[in-house]
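task queued by scheduler; priority normal; single chain, no ligands, no partner chains; default sampling; output format set to C-alpha cells
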Amino acid sequence: MRAVRSRQEVNGRIGEMTQGCGEISALYRGTSAMCSLVLAAGLSVSAAFADGIQPGLWQVISRTQTGGVIGPPHESSKCLTPQDTSDLATTFAPASRTVNSTCAPIEHKLSGSRLSWRLTCKGQLDMELIGEFNFDSPQHYTGTVQTKAAMAGMPMLDSQQNIEGRWLSACPQ
C-alpha cells in the first residue's frame, strides 16, 4: 500500500474504498453526498401504526450538512414492498461493505416508533455512522444520519444528513 500524499488524493481514495456505500438505506440510496465523501443513508395500507409504515411509493427528501455547509435538497422516490416495510431495522440500516476496513456488527434498536442504529468500521478508513429515525405515522417519517470519519489518521469532515419520507401512493404496476 502506498502513502497518501494530499487531501484531494485522500478524498479520491475514500470513493474507491467505499463502493456500495449508497446502500445505507433502501429508501435514500444514492442521496447521501457524505456517503461518497467518507464511506463515504408497515405491513399493509390498512396496517396499524404499531406495525410500521405502509408499503408503496415513497418520496424521500434529504439534505446533507458537511463542515457547516448545507447542501441543496435531494429528492428521490422508492417503492417499498411489504417485505421492506415489515423489517424497518434492515430497510433503514446501512450495509457495511467497505474495502480495507472491517466493520463491527450493526447495533440497532427498534422501540415503538423509533429506530436507532450505529455502525463503526476500523482500518484504512475509520468511521462511525449513527442513524435515528422516527416513524411518526404509517405515511411519514424523519431521520438523521451522522457520519464521522478519518482516513490514514487524517480526520475528515463530519456530516449530518436530514431525511424526510412521505408516502405518495401504491407502487405503480
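post-processing summary
- DSSP finds four helices and ten strands in the chain.
- Residues 7-169 form one domain.
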